[in-house]
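Saturday, quiet lab. Running sequence design on the structure tokens for the scaffold JK sent over.
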């Protein structure tokens, strides 16, 4: 089983660029949580903290496809240092503004600069795999990156919370900034494995246009995934709190991520014998159905079991969606195409958290999982209306 991973990690330069991208995308799971911890500690207001972190999330959703387009046009070695510098500057200014209790909208603008410039290492490393690995290795490579995404979302929140609560609320965000800048510069320095870039003419020929029949439904599915992820975090905390064990909420979410990590590893070791489109349809259906038991129980052991099972559908869904983008968009615009899907994900997180919070306040906490169920239906619907050049029906 490990031979498959040994093969892809034997690709020249692969361990180095994958490791650099792992470090570079740590801020994805640390920035918003770190802002919430810092602002709530500094001002005593979770409302202010939520608004500032939401601004960063929205700015990131806006900036991701723009970064993707610039990267495809000018190259990772040019775009990554610039975005890393702007990200570091925006984060430093946000920390300064918050520490000085600067009036709105100054902290919000600084957080927006950090969010919009947050380096899109996830889409860039996948573009590197596509350029450097054989086509038969791409599913395993994308599965590896899905596993590393789960590592980011397991490790990042733990690190930023530990540093913010036991050292200083500023230190967690400083570490996030250093990781983002250092990882991005390390990735940019690896010119040998960088995909080629090229300035495109203003009027591109039709062969290089984006396949909207593929991309728009995938973005819609991404929004559904984002709402589901954002809602699940809020609802799981509320369910644990209602049971009197709020301190276990992080463990429950880690169990969810662990299920996804294991599934991603297995998918990479033994790629499924179905097309990416069929895989996406199957896994979104499984993910949606796996939410139903969560509506019917408040027992934390059963919630943990249901979340673990649900997690098994996450990484395979992400792998399939990324493969569809890789197969369907022009290679000259691959980074941009992947960034559009991740933008859908990022766009859905904040509304998912807000809507599920309202449901939790208005009904029993477990009913907040109904928001996850609805979001799963949206993701599943998106997978069923996909049309593309090479969606491999």
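Result came back. Writing it out in full:
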């Amino acid at each position: 089983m490990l031979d498959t991973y040994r093969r892809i990690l034997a690709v020249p330069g692969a361990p180095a660029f994958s490791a650099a991208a792992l470090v570079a995308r740590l801020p994805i799971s640390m920035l918003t949580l770190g802002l919430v911890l810092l602002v709530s500690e500094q001002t005593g207001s979770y409302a202010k903290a939520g608004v500032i972190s939401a601004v960063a999330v929205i700015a990131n959703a806006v900036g991701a496809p723009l970064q993707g387009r610039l990267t495809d046009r000018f190259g990772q070695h040019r775009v990554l240092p610039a975005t890393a510098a702007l990200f570091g500057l925006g984060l430093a200014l946000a920390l300064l503004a918050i520490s000085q209790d600067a009036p709105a909208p100054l902290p919000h603008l600084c957080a927006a600069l950090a969010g919009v410039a947050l380096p899109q290492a996830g889409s860039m490393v996948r573009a590197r795999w596509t350029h450097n690995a054989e086509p038969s290795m791409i599913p395993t490579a994308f599965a590896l990156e899905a596993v590393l995404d789960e590592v980011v979302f397991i490790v990042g929140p733990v690190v930023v919370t530990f540093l913010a609560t036991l050292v200083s609320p500023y230190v967690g965000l400083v570490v996030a900034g250093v990781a983002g800048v250092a990882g991005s510069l390390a990735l940019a320095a690896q010119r040998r494995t960088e995909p080629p870039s090229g300035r495109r003419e203003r009027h591109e020929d039709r062969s290089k246009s984006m396949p909207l029949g593929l991309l728009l439904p995938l973005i819609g599915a991404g929004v559904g995934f984002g709402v589901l992820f954002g809602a699940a975090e809020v609802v799981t905390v509320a369910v644990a709190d209602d049971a009197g064990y709020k301190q276990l909420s992080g463990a429950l979410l880690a169990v969810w991520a662990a299920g996804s990590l294991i599934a991603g590893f297995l998918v990479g070791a033994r790629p499924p014998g179905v097309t990416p489109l069929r895989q996406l349809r199957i896994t979104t259906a499984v993910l949606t159905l796996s939410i139903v038991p969560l509506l019917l129980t408040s027992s934390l052991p059963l919630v943990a079991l249901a979340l673990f099972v649900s997690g098994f559908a996450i990484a395979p869904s992400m792998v399939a969606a990324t493969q569809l983008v890789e197969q369907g968009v022009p290679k000259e615009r691959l980074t941009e195409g992947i960034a559009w899907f991740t933008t859908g994900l990022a766009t859905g997180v904040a509304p998912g958290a807000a809507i599920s919070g309202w449901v939790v306040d208005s009904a029993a906490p477990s009913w907040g999982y109904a928001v996850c169920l609805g979001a799963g239906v949206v993701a599943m619907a998106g997978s069923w209306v996909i049309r593309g050049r090479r969606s491999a029906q």
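Notes for JK: The chain has two domains: 1-197, 210-393. The two ends are 28 Å apart (CA to CA). Ask whether to fix the surface positions before the next round.
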